[in-house]
């Protein structure tokens, strides 16, 4: 049975293909269109899935969509959509989703609509490897729900309690994100990265934003929020509460802003921990699955696991809305077949397109690019790359199938030496072209992780933070609070990345690399050869290792290409990051 | 407003009930009407005034176009702003504009036609006009023309420029624009509130495509009014004379493309009759049977008077019979019928806009150089063609010189107070170098090909190019090379060579040769024409091209998707549907795909997933390198149908092969009621004849 899963029309559109219950292909639409967080119908991602599977659209048994448009419309009506201008009403017409699926995606077969948070729940539980688990989803908003409590077992996934819009931890987080001068649905990671630099001096004020209630409930104090009106996330009262006006994008980052970020993080962790305890009380289960955008807050997840009642935690690596397509497809599979999903933990996220050495060679052939060809000699490729990293070079690493989800995990990565004292500043400024405080994460050989980090289990998806315990200096990947967001790498899921880590370990004695996403600020992670070349050429990346080929900046004159690419029309995000239209 | 800044919780069940009813789509449901009334009367949560950020962004500097103001002791100088370097290639290649001197200063504002597109920066409108005036006895060496024309200048951009350029203290302002002023159908639709879009449907039902055209034209009025207001306030009110040059169109040689002249408004049996008349007209023309030719074209026009093709062919008939006035009228009608903006709409100043410009000029005290009227009265046959134009609106050297003589005549009157006959105003002695002219015609060949113009016209410009200068051959070779590559043009060394050597600087700095992501043309017909023209200098040019195609695109055992941009089109005349579909749509009666075969006579296997929205039960036919005998036919359906068939080896040639999918007739009957959305409305005006989800070709193992 071939099921297409689709997330779209809000942000992070994506498509996946589930064949007989096995997730075969998945990709975000933004990677193909180069529009960050692209919400449009995932035509390229869907084409990719079908092409790779060798399927025609007539081979698809069902398209599972990650929301119920009718329920969402109810929430939009309640929020006041009918009082808004006709244009906005038109954009949320009840038939919009089906029209898009039929007319834009061209799909004529059966459609199953799976509730947003049920999709999130399924995307976590069905890929967790757990036979039974409590399921906790937290995000901005789906239809009505913003937070749900449920269980997953052999009978399927069920939600037994929810918190409804506008009470939302995701929107709380996004509101503060916007107040701090970052884009909504774009800058939340930055707030999380900023928090360790701050002190929790505004916890008291932050607690006034959200009132805890019995059971799983909580309530936002809407005096401080303005997102219902669709213009700005926060109200003037929020600034009064904190005593400072909102920060403007690119304005100086002051200690105050860091303190706000820290205070938010503390309050979020408090709430998640309390509600996780409630969920445990309700279910009595020892496993916890989490999903939804807030579940990407790995610092909070770590606290939930460490201080909460659950023994095991699984966070689906594409926990944001993009991953909803996986859950919708899995839910539809169970529903249509009456069979259970295979009980198997998701091993990797390398579900996107790959390019062969022939593709790369063909791309390079008509260019003036000088490269080293290591075809058929992966050891040489890894050794040469490791030596360059040791020399302080920043590497663009483009290997195999692209990751699904927001993290680069060794397929489309920028890599560097974590021991280098100024590496973080250099990559932020010259390569990623982003804020200097943004942290980087380490990738470490799986069986060596415990030597360096307070970590006793694999962390393949870079979704957990832990303390550095080794007496070594790795300033580029260690936060100010001594923590790190670790990715463990084993030879089975990414043999080439593992081999590179081994090669680096051989020549330096350090089995760790700085690993960050292969993109620059405001752009999606690179997808294909051309994207990788453009990112390499227009940034300060020293060396591009693409398939079996190594392209060094010092061996090439790239100024002309830089000039030409500067003139090429750039397509950046078309989203309004001041506020999302939640109504 | 609720006390807690949120709508009442009591409304939630009602919202759910209403949403459920709306989703069922029963618009006459009384309960739904009641609930809509409830929510329509419930005001949304009001926005509280957003706080101003801690600091406002710095105001932009004082600019005139790309030039930034820099005061100095001798006055205000303007230098190109490095921060705007990306835009430099759109403007004059002038780095520094000095303060006004003793010379009479003329500002030239306008669009690409005023830029001297394809000759600039070596030769352009400003150079020619300045030279004519400075060679005149009245203004001898006492004139400077400040060139502020910009490629793709919009009405808004032009208005902003008018508002800012007064600081240059002109004695005269010339505005040579109007090609970009017509609102296009999609702009009209997108600018409308959703509720008003039904107006389109009502108009379509009651007045047909002509009514839509009226809407488009009226929509253009309000846009241009702001410009004339600015001109009046900035110049006329300050006694600075303004001269408006109304552009002309390449009436005889520029033709509507296959989307623009598709059978948009003819359905059912009339569609079949129109096709027959078109075939009859083509045959009659070939055998020069004038009587039958006119009869067939008349029949085309009777059946579909709003289709540009009939008028173009009528114009051809009148040209063949030396009826010049009638020919001009027919060509002008054809020009004005094109209202749809595809991805590659050809700018034009149509009759409606010309009238508007003449009216506004008279009303505001502006002088006018009305090129259409002047060309009509002074050209031998009165119909401009390829001798005056490089493409649809961009003038050739002869065209620029002619237009600037008319302009100089007016300028002499305005600045020197002399009224000289045209015969007394010679063109300047400035003539672009042969290499410049060669590149201009090569650029024209590319431009014409990328807009889907005829092989004959593309050939004409290729021959002119090589005829002007043999030095263009190396540039052409580079073009053939990077066009044939799968790699994005911007990375290709052949493209770098062109840029470094400046060989195509006239083509927007050479950057126009690059392409958008994933939208590279293989340029099969153009490359073929170019290679053919090169054979005199390079006898094996065609074989080399074939070898390159085979090595880059040769089909092997892995399926190649023919609906990709590279293999499904040879030009940018794409019907723009937003959002883009996940599948190929044909709004023409036949779809053409290309594939590159590694070997002659090698059979290939195709898989095709297709549907026809309107012509179920009729046959779709597939042709290979031939329009007469299909290699495969299958019944069409409105549901996707997946078929596999073989291409016979004997019909396969080495390198470029053409597969044509001919969609079935009759055409869909129009049903305006079915057009509930913007996309549906567009599809009603330009119906889809066939759709392809996937079309692959591979060798047979």
UniProtKB/TrEMBL annotation, chain A:
Name of protein: Carbamoyltransferase
Cleavable signal peptide: none
Record bears the keyword Hydrolase: no
Keywords assigned by UniProt, alphabetized: Transferase
Gene3D superfamilies xref list: 3.30.420.40, Carbamoyltransferase, C-terminal domain (3.90.870.20)
GO function terms (MF aspect): transferase activity
Sequence similarity: Belongs to the NodU/CmcH family.
CDD domains registered for this protein in UniProt: ASKHA_NBD_TobZ_N
InterPro entries found in the cross-reference section: ATPase_NBD, Carbam_trans_C, Carbam_trans_C_sf, Carbtransf_dom, NodU/CmcH_Carbamoyltrnsfr
Domain Carbamoyltransferase C-terminal residues, every copy: 386-553
Source organism, top-level taxon: Bacteria
Domain Carbamoyltransferase: residue ranges: 3-70, 110-329
Automatic annotation (TrEMBL), chain B:
Organism of provenance: Chitinophaga costaii
Protein name as it appears in the record: Uncharacterized protein
GO-annotated molecular function: hydrolase activity, acting on ester bonds
